[in-house]
Known about the structure:
Blueprint: H1 2-5, H2 9-18, H3 20-39, H4 42-45, E1 47-52, E2 67-72, E3 120-127, E4 140-146, E5 153-167, E6 177-187, H5 191-199, E7 203-207
Antiparallel strand pairs: 1-2, 3-6, 4-5, 4-7, 5-6
Amino acid sequence: MLTRLLPHLPTWRRALRRRRRTLAVLVVAAAAVLLVPSLVPGSVTGTEVVVAAEDLPTGTALEAEQMRTVEVASSLVPSGASTAVEDLVGERLAAPVAADGPILSGDLLATGEDSLPEGTALLAVPVPEVLLPHLRSGTRIELLMSDPVDGSATRIPAEIRSLSPATGTGALGTGTDAGVQALVLVDRQRSGEVAHALGTSNVAVSVIR
């Protein structure tokens, strides 16, 4: 068999020499396929983030089927986001989470905490981005409401329950960005006053100690 192959060796050598550039390109391409995935930054490959699979009201005890994960760019992962559904099973929500919205640590009740203390109301209030580094669940604030007629101002104490992007759809990474909203606890007897002021855009947020 070897004696039959020997006459063909010069022909094979010439063929390999003619195609050595093509072979070199194929070798480099194969190496790139093996090496590139490990070199791609996390912001490109993405990170798994837990989101609500349905609208979840305040006080919900989270179950696995009520959540799912989506992949987003690592640079866009919200602060306080979880990457595993099992980490959140059994936790209770301190604030409602819309379907496809991320479930953040600020949305969860602390152990032994009531979902909505008696005599309080939960309202959504827009907050300026400049205050975000100073706001988290439990931060005490004042809602400053001005009267456009006589210029008087009213201060109503409140407490931050959670922060979330105010998007058109509530879905992570979709919708039109409309800033940030804070879910706040206020005295139930003052909630109507706050809601009216919010409707006329006469509410400012102040952080207090």
